[in-house]
Design brief:
The structure is a single chain. With 267 residues, this protein is α/β, with parallel strands linked by helices. 32% of the residues lie in helices and 17% in strands. The chain has an eight-stranded mixed beta sheet with strand order 1-2-4-3-5-6-7-8.
Amino acid sequence: MDLTDAYENGAYIEGAAEYPARWAKAAARYRAQLAELGLARLDLSYGAGEREKLDLFLPGESHDGPPKGLVVFVHGGYWRRFDRKDWSDLAEGARARGWAVAMPSYDLCPAVRISEITRQVAAAVCFAAREVDGPIRLAGHSAGGHLVARIAVPGVLPEAVEARVVDVMPISPLSDLRPLMQTAMNADLRLDMAEAEAESPILLPAPRAKVSVWVGGSERPAFIDQANWLHDAWGAHVTIVPGHHHFNVIEPLGEPYSAIVETLLGL
């Protein structure tokens, strides 16, 4: 069975082609504003590769003392598109509430396999954890939702870092990679059954941290299924947001008092 259409988002979202340029413009404006205020540490290398870099956004002077902790946001794009610079403004919700926010890029398929991306994101979290003290909260969208769930599995992160992870928020995640073997994108992903099983969070032990899954009510049914599978496997709470689709479900991350930010921050 060909499942390509089941995992196709853009064809079912009005004005889908306009989103990437809008994302990039808003993100660039945000980075410039934070850099001018001295609140952005950009292009920090967490590995040897050109894409193994992250940006770190820091809370301002209105927050006394050090950051309350670290939020790491991992972007999506089916492991094949985008980088950290497309999403910078989504840091504002947590940053405005006193948290430092790290946003990593990573190598993309088909240049690397998903298992290598998992390794890179774990390395990015470890790097950011050395830069910012306190609890760690992980969030990721789509493929990024897969990645934060995957690295939260016990034994992936060093014990000292894993112990600091208190919340994991996969947003519209891919929690079972096996169906993606039946899509056209697998020409780039190059998933075989061994890797699909090894990289599927639902087939792995649940994290020690709290897991809260978010997904739009207007998403493709496959994504709602993927979210619910994490509930079935890990007992994760799933929030289905009415009227939101795969592209706009993450926008409230940029709003300090949105429900998704308050859930991510445990408020």
